[in-house]
Amino acid sequence: MRILSLLGTLALLLQLSAVNGRAFSLIGPFSGWQTPDIGYDLNIVAGNEPGGPRLRGDEYRLSTPVMTYGVDGSFFEYFGAPGMQALDSAFAVFNNLTNVSDFSENLAEFPLKADGVNPLARTLGLLDLKTMVMSYILSGMGLTAPDHWTWSIRARYVDAGGTPHYSVANFNYDPITGLPSRYVNGTMYSYVIREVYDGNNAVAGYDAREVPIDSSAPTIALASLVHEADSPMDSRLLRAKSRFGRYFTGLTRDDAGGLRYLYRPQNFNYEAAPAGSVRGTGVTTIGGSSGSLDSPWTIASPGAIGTNAVQNGTTGGRALVNLGVRAGVDKVQFIRVDMDPILRVSPLPLVVSYPELVVSNGIVVSQIVARTLTRPDIQFSAVDLGVALFTPVAYSQTQYVYNNTGSTVIAGAEGPGNIEPTFGMQFSKVGVHNLNDGNSDEQDGTRGFLWSTFDGSTNAPVIFPVGTTLQDLEDAYNALP
Fold first, then answer.
1. CA distances, 42 to each of 26, 110, 206, 211, 469 (Å)
2. What one-character-per-residue DSSP string does 285-350 give?
3. 337 vs 274, which has greater pLDDT?
């Protein structure tokens, strides 16, 4: 009878997972208690963790509805026009979304699984540029890896007898109910507490390692891919998060749910306008024509900047209301701006303007926010990023600037707040390389990663640096097994 009862319980759990099998995780600055010894900011491999998981209500998000992006000369030299096309395609996925308030209640228009594997790209050790950029965009908008933070150690205590004790918290939230969830896109997770070792095989900390218990091939969220894919994890999850040959076609249901939670107009937070913002006027000039800023945001071209767009930071003697209660912006639009390839700045400053309503001291204020930019909000580069232990680092993220506005209301609060819209991503341009162990030769080496763009079609991957062909790789690896 106990066995039948257990089977019935498992069947019920699996049925519930099909209905409620979703969750997202929020990102913010590492709290004082989120230390490496209990699994946070371990920095074992590449140090690509720009923040830790946040409790619901302590989230960080963009407070602007428009972001710009661009590349410098190093990126264009290495990735060329195909690389730019990959970037544009990544941002188009977000630009083509409706307002989050228009998402359906159950988010059924978004799939639980949006990724696939290109066998040739996996064999060649290729990383998809578009996919990694899409994952990075989600990170910059306030989401982190739900399959890594489903279970997290909150505290560790070792008693006098040497026995360790742990409290384990759940940092995932269901986008429908808002309650903590142990599911990620239909996959249910338990955990095991394990040691985490560094490159010298010494214990670097402890982690509540997620274990998928209802699937041999767990589904993951796009937000997961850019975060800690190299950290120790369950072998099934490690395979699912392997970036080699993996591509995403768009957002998963959990990704969409996280964006809806953060940016829905009903989510009011006390937060600041982006740093450097001033109060603009009600009319700006765009390419020689005038347009009202009472509705959509606008971006003024370099030749159109003037007092019409920004009036010394005030309008009618009124300064910008910076700190105040703001609603979620409903949708963030991304616009590409071209930079000077040598100086790595915009040829002339740009002015981004948009209208907003903000509540200050109980008064609703309608204002125009104007930002003057000398570089894109999100900037992409190609550089030699050094190594982690001995392996070339594939990519790096500029550390986000978090503005904890919640602490200005309640002392010691860990949020909410906003993410300043100035960050970037750097890609390795090391190119073809091999990895060897001990006294060995070229034939003993294994292939290192290469940046590429590919999908699930039979089209050959586009390999970088721009101009590289599959034949070039065959020639480079002809001595390898």
1. 18, 33, 10, 19, 37
2. EETTEEEESSSS-EEE-GGG-STTTB-TTEETTEEP--SEEE---S--EEEE----TTT-S-SS-E
3. 274
121-143, pLDDT tens digit by residue?
998 899 999 999 999 999 999 99
Cis amide prior to 416 (ω within 30 degrees): yes
CA distances from 29 to 54, 144, 230, 410 (A): 8, 12, 21, 17
Burial status of residue 157 (CB atoms within 10 A of its CB: 0-12, 13-18, 19 or more) = exposed
> What percentage of the chain exceeds 70 in pLDDT?
82
pLDDT in tens, 310-326: 333 444 457 899 999 99
Determine the distance from the C-alpha atom of residue 10 to the mean position of all C-alpha atoms in its chain, rounded to a whole number: 33
Tokens representing 261? 């939670």
Cα–Cα distance measured from residue 192 to residue 169, given in angstroms and rounded to the nearest whole number: 13
Q: What does pTM read for this prediction? A: 0.86
Q: Which of 213, 216, 149, 144 is nearest to 181 (CA)?
A: 149
Look up residue 98 and give its DSSP letter: -
Q: Given pLDDT bands bounded at 50, 70 and 90, which one contains residue 346?
A: low
Structure tokens at 426: 């750097």
Bond into 465 cis (ω within 30): yes
The DSSP code for 51 is -
Instruction: Report the alpha-carbon distance of residue 227 to residue 48 in Å, rounded.
Output: 7
Rounded CA-CA distance 344/278 in Å is: 24
Q: Amino acid letter at 328? A: G
Has residue 373 got a pLDDT over 50?
Answer: yes
Non-local (6+) Cβ contacts of 289 within 8 A are: none
> CA 25, CA 182: separation in Å to the nearest integer?
11
Kindly list the domain boundaries of the chain, sorted by start residue. 45-277+320-339+376-476
Contact 101, 404 (CB under 8 A): no
